[in-house]
Amino acid sequence: MAGQVKISGAKNSALVIIAGALLCPQDCRIRNVPSLVDVARMGQLLSSLGVKISQHGDVLDIDASDLSTSQAPYEIVSQLRASFFTIGPLLARQGYAQVPLPGGCTIGARPVDLHVRGLQAMGADVQIEHGMVNAYVAGSSRRLKGAKIYLDYPSVGATETLMMAATLAEGETVIENAAQEPEVVDLANFCNSMGARIRGAGTTAITISGVPRLHSTDYAIIPDRVEAATFLVAGAITNSEISLAPVIPDHLTPAIAKLQEIGVQIVADAPDCLRIVPGEGLRGTDIKTLPYPGFPTDMQAQFMALLSLSEGDSVITETVFENRLRHVAELNRMGADIRVEGNIAVVRGVPLLSGAPVVASDLRASAALVLAGLAAKGKTTIQGLHHLDRGYEKLEVKLLSLGARLQRVTGAIVSPERQLGVNNPTVNSYQ
Ligand code: UD1
Fold first, then answer.
1. Residue 421 confidence (pLDDT) above 50
2. Cβ(45)–Cβ(80) under 8 Å?
3. What is the residue with the minimal CA distance to atom 9 of ligand 1?
4. Atom 11 of ligand 1 has which residue's CA nearest to it?
5. DSSP of 91-126, one letter per residue?
6. Ligand 1 atom closest to Cα of 297?
7. Edge-to-edge strands, sheet with 125-129
8. Residue 107 C-alpha to ligand 1 middle, in angstroms?
9. Taken in order 300, 103, 13, 174, is the CA torsion positive or negative?
10. What is the pLDDT of residue 409?
11. What pLDDT is recorded for position 110?
12. Is the CB of 430 inside a 6 Å radius of any atom of ligand 1?
C-alpha cells in the first residue's frame, strides 16, 4: 500500500458537539462532521426532541430553537451510549430532562454515576426509576447553580455533560480532575463560539462562568485522532508509506511515541500532515492505556494487532475499560500468540499471521481485525461490520485508494485474493 489519506472529523467530538447544539436557541452550523452510523443516530435523537437538522455533505445545520420534549427515546439511547450526553444540555436549557440509563456494552459496565453526582451538585434533583434518569431543577428560574465538582475519575463523558450543563448555570462551576482529551477542548471551543465562558479545558481544572443564553455559531470539528492512528498502524503493519492529513500531531503524541519505539519513523511534512515511513523490522514494546495525555484505550486494539507481528514480548495493560481485550481470541485465531491475565495481555510476536474468519466484538476491535487481515497471509473474513460503521468513515474506500485488497461483501465473493467465508445479509463482512 502507499499514498495519501484524508482524515475525517472526530467522531467523539461530533457526537458531543451535536448534543451540545441543544444548548443553543438559534441556528448552529457544524462542519467537518463525519458520516457515521453513530452520528446519524445522534441526529435522530435530536430530531425526536423536535430539533430541525439538515445535512449537506459534511456540514450539519441544527436548529434547536423549539424543543418539543426533554424526553430521550430508549430505542435510540440503547443503541448509542453517547446519547446520554444530552442530559446536560437538556437540563440546563429546559430545567428538566428524562434520559434512559444507557446500560453497559461489550467493553465494560460504563456507569453514569459521575454525570449524575455532578448534576446533583449543581442543584438538580435526579431520580433513577425503571431504568430512566429523571432530572429536574426546582425554583422559579429553573437554572442549575454553579458548583465545585471533583470527579473521582477523569471521565470524558462526565466532564462533557457537566461542562455543557454549567454553560447556562447561575454562577461559576469548577470541574476538578477533569478529562483533558482533545474532544473535551473541542466541545469547550464550540460552546465558547456560542458565547459560553469556559476556561481551562485541556487541563485538569475547567472553570465555567454561566451565561443566561447562547447564540448561533459556525464551527468546524477537529480531525479524528483515532482514525489517524489507525492509518498509522495500517502503514506500520503492511510496511507501507502513507501520508495523513489533516491531523493535529500533538493529539497523536502517545501513538507516535509507541510507533517510534516499535521501529517506525513518523515525519511531519506540514503542520497538519504526517507521513509514516516503515522501518527495518518491528520490535515489541509495552503499552498501558490511560486518560489523555496517556495512551488512548481507543487505540489499544489496533496496536495489539501490530505488536502481534513485532519481534519480542509486549505487555499491554488496559486500565480504562474492564472488558476491552475481546479481540485477543480473534487475533489468536489468526496465529497471534497473546495470553490474557485480567486486564493484561502478553503479546509474543510471531513472524506471520494467517487469514481466518473472525468476528468483531466492538468498534476498535473491528479496526484491529481489518489491520491484522491486511497483514495476514491468505483470506480473512471479518463479521460484525456494524461496529466498524459506527466509527470509521468509508474505511474500505480509503484503504482501497492506498492499494489494499479488501472488499465489503454483503452478497457474493469478489476478491481474487481473499475469499468470503460468510454471507449473512444482516451482518456485513470484510474479506
Ligand atoms: C469516551 C469515548 C470513548 C473512549 C472513552 C475513554 C465518546 C463518545 N466516547 O467514552 O470512545 O474510549 O471516552 O477515552 O466520547 N466511568 C464511571 N462513571 C461514570 C463515567 C465513567 O465509572 O460516571 C468509568 C467508565 O466505566 C470507564 C472510565 O470511567 O471505565 C472511562 O469512561 P469515560 O471516560 O467516561 O468514557 P466515555 O465518555 O464513556
1. no
2. yes
3. 12
4. 298
5. HHHHSEEEEE----BTTB----HHHHHHHHHTT-EE
6. 12
7. 96-100, 132-136, 125-129
8. 10
9. negative
10. 87
11. 79
12. no
| Nearest Cα residue to 197 out of 27, 64, 23, 66 | 23
Which amino acid is it at 63?
D
Residue nearest ligand 1's atom 12 by CA: 298
**Segment 244-303, tens digit of pLDDT:** 999 999 999 999 999 999 999 999 999 999 999 988 899 999 999 999 999 999 999 999
Cα 394 to ligand 1 centroid, rounded to whole Å: 25
pLDDT (0 to 100) of residue 417:
35
Task: Name the more confident of 269 and 430.
Answer: 269
Name the band, by pLDDT with cuts 50, 70 and 90, for residue 153.
Answer: very high
User: From the CB of residue 200, how many other CB atoms can be counted at a distance below 10 Å?
Assistant: 16
> Taking the chain, what is the end-to-end CA distance rounded to the nearest angstrom?
17
Q: Judge if the beta carbon of residue 289 lies within 6 A of ligand 1.
A: no
Would you list the DSSP string of 29-41? EEES----HHHHH
CA separation for the pair 53, 17 (Å, rounded): 14
Instruction: Confirm whether 105 is a catalytic residue.
Output: yes
SS3 letters across 266-332: EEEEECCEEEEECCCCCECCCEEECCCCCECHHHHHHHHHHHCCCECEEEEECCCCCCCCCHHHHHH
* 236: region left, alpha or beta (phi > 0 left; psi from -120 to 50 alpha): alpha
* pLDDT exceeds 90 at position 363: yes
Contacts with 200 (C-beta within 8 Å, 6 or more apart), sequence order = 178, 206, 207
CA distance 195 to 259: 40
At residue 431 the predicted structure's pLDDT band, cuts being 50, 70 and 90, is low
Annotated binding residue 112: yes
Q: Does residue 155 line the site of ligand 1, with CB under 6 A?
A: yes
For the Cβ of 320 lying below 6 angstroms from any atom of ligand 1, the answer is yes
Locate cell 473474513: which residue? Answer: 381
Q: Residue 369 — φ and ψ, nearest 5°? A: -70, -35
pTM for this prediction: 0.95
CA-to-CA distance for 300 and 317, rounded, in angstroms?
9
